[in-house]
Amino acid sequence: MNQSRADIPRGTALMTSLRASWIDGRTVDGGGSAMAHRNPANDADLGDTETADVRIVDLAVSSARRCFEHSWGLLSPYDRKKLLLVYANLIDEHAEELTLLEMLEVGRPGTDAAGLNASAGDILRSYALKIDTVNGDMFRSEERRMGVVLRRARGVVGAIVPWNVPVMNVLLRVAPALAAGNTIVVKASELCPRTTLLLARLAMEAGLPDGAFNVVIGEGPVAGARLAEHPDLNLVAFTGSSVTGHAVARAAASTSFKPVLLECGGKSPQVVLDDAFDDERIWPLLFFSAFWNTGQWCVAKTRLLIPRGREQQAIDGLIAAARDWQVGDPADASTRLGPIASRAQLARVQGYYTAASATGELVDLDCPRGITDSSGYYVSPSIVTGLPRGSVLQTEEVFGPLMTVELFDDLDDAIALANDTAFGLSASVWTARSDHGYKLARNIRAGGVSIFSSVDAARSTGPELGTARYFEPQKESGLGVDGGEHGYLAYTTPQSLYFHN
Length: 501
Fold this sequence. Notes:
Number of helices: 18
Shape: globular
Helix content: 25-40%
CATH architecture of the largest domain: 3-Layer(aba) Sandwich
Radius of gyration: 23 Å
Number of domains: 2
Strand content: 15-25%
CATH class of the largest domain: Alpha Beta
Structural class: alpha/beta
CATH topology of the largest domain: Aldehyde Dehydrogenase, Chain A, domain 1
Distance between the termini: 62 Å
């Protein structure tokens, strides 16, 4: 269902009831100072939320510990699965409210957010169904002895989540943690705490016990730092920048030996070989891979690597593709690209645009502009060409709608260029030559590489959100397995039992 301006008052009314941390099944006021929020589409005041201080974070962890030891952690797998499936259905029923909050808090286009959130409940269902299939292992069975490995819940999980795709990013941490039998404390993003609070309230409505899903609101240096270092956590899961990821890992190790899951920054390449240029339908797909969500997603393929001599063809193709991507008000059903999510992020992105003009040629892709407020945080999707190799624009994550176009001479040069970054999250390769595709994929250091033999092949398969596959980021992009069965197992710990009879 499309969201419209008529829905905004309903979303605003909803926000007024979501203002403070959620602990032990209730709102907990006080602790820190008020935190202001602005609508990125028009810079309008969205009201304050109450930040959590160290004491509030400690209360949340204590609540999660009690719930794990006396309630959620004692439930049978069957009962745990049943409650999570009820929770998934409730998320489906409240998808419109979640979408409204995303529009208001971070400026996600309503039509796009509604389409994505319509399947948000499936993340919970995917992990809930793994409860029946992921069990322990028998490693030795003889007449007088037998060995088994149990998969036990770790206990209390702390999750620090980002702002770019609020509903999905919360559920990608909460779903496997709860399915595996853990309780969780989520440090909500400063930009979109209300989305996380609503998800926690829905969990309570679904029948999950008080303390199974707690939320603290606050800034990273206070609430996030205390959660990461907390000695009573059994796992810390973080999604965000690599700089903050390092800080989280140091904090986690400072008080106890607890594992961390880190999905951090990316600077992902899409390598297009000569044979893929013959199909002009490729350009809308390459545009989507870089500019969806206004370039604010960790696996955005914002580096276009192409053979030397194909530069003008690429520019023309991307300009043509941009005609179908209207920049505008998130409440307009025609909008496909919204504003940058915050004023601070806007300033950061504009700094990279300035650097692009100084070191290369900045090309505005001339996306159509719909209705926009002059006070909104809008930028024009653009590409930059003619950069010297090793430029910060080729190696640093912009997290905005700016793509670099980089030229290579042969396959080995393409591999070297693709790997010339501190990140290793994702990549894509476009070629009908399986030998070339395999060589590139095997040598590009990234957690996940997609090899597209044709445009038709790319269109016939859809993007996945991490529930059916798994990967581990490389280099500065993170640590630990996310997604699928292996991602579920990351929220458990193996215990070996050996019976001697």
